Amino acid sequence: MDAIFKALADPTRRSLLDALFQEDGQTLTALEARFEMTRFAVMKHLKLLEEAGLVVTRRQGREKLHFLNPVPIRLIHDRWVSKYALPVVAALSDLKSRLESPVQKIYEIYIRTTPERLWEAITDSEIRSKYNFGARITSDWTPGSHYEMAAPGAAGGLLGEGEILESDPPRRLVQSMVALWSEDVKREGTSRVTWEIEPVGDSCRLVVTHDQLREGANDELYGGWPMILSGLKTWLETGELLTTPGSLMYR
Fold first, then answer.
1. For labelling, which of 39, 79, 143, 158 has a CA lying 20 to 30 Å from the CA of 4?
2. CA–CA separation, 175 and 161 (whole Å)
């Protein structure tokens, strides 16, 4: 948490996050043009934001793109913000951005667990329901197989479905996603979710990439990821469940 607060304490770094909030997936050149400082100075600020986990980078051809990662802010929210105050500070968990189509959202989190246990938490239906708003996902998790997401407390049947595109346990899982929980999200069609697990010491680095989203896509499709990943980390590290209203949606 110290690295996060240190990164947020500087107004320039907050401005960089604001810039990525407005337009995600920017190059260093594009970010540098927004500030009256040297390229090296911008690089130093971005490095501190990366070290704090607030910015994630991804290579796209010859370019290095920078993405806002709202998960650490969500973790601060879950630790210190009362559920009774949640409606007042809902903006903390609603960090949104726009990028030229196809849009991709990238979320990074470190969890003290093993790759095998993390993979189980992602693919086991009962465990998944503990942090995924109470929804269960059923599949045999082999490439080409179908999966369905449902919850007893959900009206109208299925919440989502899709196909397992890649499965390499306990390292990488790629799945298509068709959201079905409302008429608005049904119109968004098919997107893609990639889970990448990398062991780091006694922990795992988990990167979730939600892409193949249209420009201006309904933020219900991806807005819940910070809460889901926060709940996953909490459950794996402590065995406890989040009790925010959103995390209890279908329980």
1. 39
2. 10
Model pLDDT for residues 30-52, shown as the tens digit of each residue: 999 988 889 999 999 999 999 99
What six digits make up the tokens of 250?
A: 């279908």
- For residue range 61-76, list pLDDT tens digits in order: 888 999 999 888 877 7
Identify whether the C-beta of residue 225 lies closer than 8 Å to the C-beta of residue 105: yes
> By three-state DSSP, how is residue 78 classified?
helix
Q: Report how far residue 177's alpha carbon sits from residue 164's, in angstroms, rounded to the nearest whole number.
A: 9
Rounded to whole angstroms, how far apart are CA atoms 148 and 60? 31
What's the rounded Cα separation, in Å, for the pair 76 and 191? 29
Q: What is the DSSP letter of 202?
A: T
Distances (CA, A) of 82 to 73, 194, 212: 15, 31, 35
- Which residue, among 220, 186, 223, 202, has the nearest Cα to 70 in the 3D structure? 223
Token readout for 154 is: 């959900």
The DSSP letter of residue 91 is G
Q: What is the DSSP letter of 178?
A: E
- Residue numbers in the chain where pLDDT is lower than 50: 84, 88-101
71-80 helix and 2-9 helix, angle to the nearest 10 degrees:
110
Distance between CA atoms of 221 and 164, rounded to whole angstroms? 18
pLDDT tens digit string along 187-211?
A: 999 999 999 999 999 999 999 999 9
Tell me the Cα Rg of the chain: 18
Q: Which residues contact 2 (CB under 8 A, 6 or more apart)?
A: none
Token digits of residue 224: 């819940």
